[in-house]
Amino acid sequence: MKSITFGKRLTEVRKNKKMSQDEVGKLVGVHGAVIGRYEREEVKPSIEMATQLAEVLEVSLDYLVGSTDILLEKNIVSKIIDIQKLKESDRQHVFALLDAFLKQTKLQSIM
Question: Is residue 51 a contact partner of residue 61, using CB atoms and an 8 Å limit?
Answer without folding.
Answer: yes
